[in-house]
Amino acid sequence: MSGPTQDPHFLPEPYAASRAAGPVRLVPAGSGDRPGYLVTGYAEAREALGDARLSKDTAAFFSGKESRRRLHPAVAQTMLASDPPRHTRLRKLVTKAFTTGAVAELRPFIARVTDELLDQWRVGEPFDFVAGLAVPLPVTVICELLGVPEGDRSDVQRWSAELFAAGRPDVIDTASHAVAEYMTGLIAAKRRDPGGSLLDRLVSARDGGDHLSEEELVSLAVLLLVAGHETTASALGNAVLALLQNPGALDRLRAHPDEIPAALDEFLRFDSSVSTATFRFTTEAVTLGSTTIPTGVPVLVALGAANRDPARFPAPDQLDLDRDAAAHLAFGHGIHRCVGAPLAKAELEIALRSVLRFPGVRLAHPPGELRWRRTRLIRGLESLPLLR
Predict the structure, then answer these.
(1) Residues 199-227 pLDDT 10s
(2) CATH of the domain at 110
(3) Which of 8, 273, 372, 377 supports an S-S bond with 234, CB 3.0-4.6 Å?
């Protein structure tokens, strides 16, 4: 469904325009698509994210429908595109890797990678924060977690970026096959030479008869690889931009860096890296707010718009470090809430602490010259040139 992508009020801003027609509204179909509903109100979005009548089983929705797309099944049918009990079983296998304790063990590695990347920044020279840190940091961390060899990580990063190439279905489809085939090969290599990575543990679960099919193993690996860094990369760029555009907040966190962990929820609320949650459709009629959505209709939940709903967050367009923003929807809500949220927060905290060590950090160009990625799912900057 491509209606929201074509809505000039939806990307990249202002969020308020998306809610002007109501918290739940019908959006037109794009070419080859069907009309659906866009949810922009906070209360309605939270309700939709937790409603089991909104299915994520894309295979069931598109069954029997002709398509010219050739997405690899490992990308098209991930854990995100499933309902319980399959979703519950798959999620259980990866949850332990992203607990607070597990993430704490990764913090020294995250800090080391962050310092190494920032060491490339020369005084007086522009440094693209997106290309120089926001993208390579999370991809390096998730590749380390999964056991992806260093020599393969640039390819993985490129394929992942191509999976979000809005308006270029052929590029997306080709990238889906490349990354799935790569992970298939990596899984085979780990069977021959086992290690201690998360992917090794998933292989052991599969080979130990833990009801994980080979297709599900490849799909989980691809999902963790892609979801593990695309959203965090955008969140890093969005947070640094927000900070540099709010000098009071910048000075405060520079003087009191121990306040950064408490400020993360407000950064995530203020400019959510996931604009729109992944595909859902109604399995029966569902009423959200005052709008009844019929059976069998796509529903897009606009997380970024919901996080700027003034009915839930007063003065939502202001970055307020004293705001209690813990109820934001940037990581989703309900059974599909982002399993990697603790890791994303750790990367955000460590990166912000490191950047704030530079006393003169500032934008290299006016904010109006910055370009945003044209994709419905991810809200992030193409580049963020900084000076120090």
Answers:
(1) 998 888 776 666 678 888 999 999 988 88
(2) 1.10.630.10
(3) 273
> DSSP secondary structure string, 20-44?
TT-SEEEE---TT---EEEE-SHHH
CA neighbor of 252 nearest in space, from 352, 169, 387, 333: 352
The confidence score (pLDDT) of residue 70 equals 85
pTM flag (> 0.85): yes
Average pLDDT over residues 39-64: 92
- Which range, of 134-148, 325-339, 364-378, averages the lowest pLDDT? 364-378
Which residue shows structure tokens 């839930």? 312
Average pLDDT of the chain, as a whole number: 89
* Cα atoms found within 13 Å of the Cα of residue 136, Cβ hemisphere only: 17
Packing angle of the helix pair 136-146, 153-162 (nearest 10 deg): 120
- Report in angstroms the alpha-carbon separations of 320 from 234, 250, 269, 316, 379: 20, 12, 10, 9, 20
Query: Stretch 354-363: mean pLDDT, rounded?
Result: 93
Show the domain range for 89.
Answer: 3-387
User: What is each CA distance from 235 to 7, 286, 292, 346, in whole angstroms?
Assistant: 23, 32, 33, 12
Q: pLDDT tens-digit profile of 87-129?
A: 998 998 888 889 889 999 999 999 999 999 999 998 889 999 9
Q: Residue 264 in contact with residue 249, Cβ under 8 Å?
A: no
Residue whose token pair is 């007086």: 124
Position 6 scores a pLDDT of 34
Instruction: Give the Cα separation of 49 and 39 in Å (integer).
Output: 10
Find the radius of gyration of the CA atoms of the chain: 20
Hey, what are 379's tokens?
A: 């809200």
Q: Among positive and negative, which fits the CA dihedral 88, 92, 98, 99?
A: positive
Residues 6+ apart with CB under 8 A from 45: 23, 39, 301, 302, 303, 305, 306, 329, 333
